[in-house]
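Bit of a strange request maybe. I'm writing a small parser for C-alpha cell strings and I need a real example to test against, not something I typed by hand. Could someone generate the C-alpha cells for this chain?
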Amino acid sequence: MRRNRRVKIIATLGPSSSDPETIAALFEAGADVFRINMSHTSPDKLSELVAAIRKVEDDAGRPIGILTDLQGPKLRIGEFADDVAELKEGEIFRFDRSQTPGSPARVYLSHGEIFKAVEPGHRLILDDGKLHMIVREKTPDTILAEVVTGGPLASRKGISLPDTVLPIGAMTDKDRRDLEHAVTQGVDWIGLSFVQRGDDVAEARKLTRGRAAIMTKMEKPAAIDHLDAILELSDGLMVARGDLGVEMPLERVPGIQKRITRACRNAGKPVVIATQMLESMITAPVPTRAEVSDVATAVFDGADAVMLSAESAAGQYPVEAVVTMDKIAIEVEGDASYQQIVHAQATQPEATAADAISAAARTVSETLNLAAIVCYTGSGSTGLRAARERPRQPVIALTPSAATGRRLALVWGLHCVLTDDAKDLDEMVEKACRIAYREGFARPGQRIIISAGVPLGTPGATNMLRVAFVGDTDPD
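Reply from user aminoacidic:
Good idea to test on real output. This should exercise your parser:
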C-alpha cells in the first residue's frame, strides 16, 4: 500500500479505537504508526493491541510502527476535606507533609524532592495550567506560595514546577516494568516522559538494550535547555506541545516547535509534532480552520510525523480524523511553495561517505528527474540519511529486518519494503527495479537510483550509487 504523502501519521489507540476492525480502518485511512499510552493501558491490553496491529500488518504486507508511551512520574497534590477548595488571588497557600485532608489554606504534598529543590520565586502550576502560584517561603516540610491565578482546586490534581529541576529520574518502577513488557512484545519505539536532562534518556537506553528506539518527549523547560544533549542520546524527539504550553508561556511554544524540528532535521533524526492538532474532531466531524493551518505548518516545516491523541483514542470520529490529516498533508505537499519552504531549512551533509552518497542521490535524482530513490538499509541508518535530504523523489527503503522497517515507518518519506539482501550487484539492481515497479513508483522505461553498501549487507557502509532502467518487469 503506497501513501501519497511523505509526512507520517501517528494514531493513538484508546476506547474509541482498540478493536481490531477500527485499527484496520485507521491503517487503511492513513495511519502509519500506532501509539499506545501506558497511562491508560494495562500490560495485558498492550499485548492485545500489539497482536491486533501485527495482524493488520500481516494482512497489508507493509511494516507498521508501534510507539509505546511511558507514563512517567506524576506529581499530584493530596486530598481536600471537601474534595474541592476555592483558592483566591493574593492569598498564601501552604503545601506540607501532613496527610490530613486539605482545606482552602493548605494541602498535602507527598513528593519530598519538591521540598528540597524548589526555591522562593519559582512558579507552581496546578490542574493543567488553571491555577498559578509563586513560592514565597520554604522549609524542609512546607512551601508557602502566593496565589497568582486562583479558582477551584480539586483533590489529586497535578502540579508542575517549570522553574525547578527536580532530582528525580524520568522513569518510575511502573515505567520500568512497562518498558520491559513492551520490548518483549516487540514494540518499535519507547516514548519517554518527564525528561529533564540527557541522563534521563541514558537510563532508558540501558534498559532497552537496542530492542526499541527511544522517542524523547520534549515537554519540560529543563529539557529545552538541554536540547543538544537529549537529542544526541535519543533516536527521535516528540514536541509535546500540551505539557510545554502548561509549563511555559503559550506564545513561546511555536518558536520552540520550530527550533526542535530544525535540530532534528540537522541531526537526521525523526521529529513528531503532537497534541491538539485536530482537537475539535474529538466531538466534531470536521476540524477548525486554525487546526488545519496548524497541521499544515508542521508539514511545511518538514516534520517526520504528526500525531493524533484524544482525537483517535477517545473521540467520536477516529477514522475521520486520520482521513482529514491525510488530506491536509497531501494538499500541502502538493502546494507550489512546498519544496521551496521545506528546503529552506536544508543543511549540509556531514563529512562521511554515507552522508555524501545520500546527498548525491538526491541531487542526481532531481537533476535526471528519476522515478524513485531506492536504498538498501539493514540498520536503518541509510534510510535516515536519505530522509534527511528531503528529496523530491519518493524513497523506497529495502531492508531484511522487520524491526528496521517498523522503526522507519515513522520517518519522513520512507516507503519500507521487507526483502532479503541481494547476493550480488546484478541481483541488487534487478530487485530494486522489480520492487519499484511492483510498488507503483516506476514504470517500464523510467530510471531509478540505487544506494547501497559494498560489500553487500555491511551495516553503515553506504558507498555506492547506481542509476538503472526499469524494464518490462513482472510485478510478481
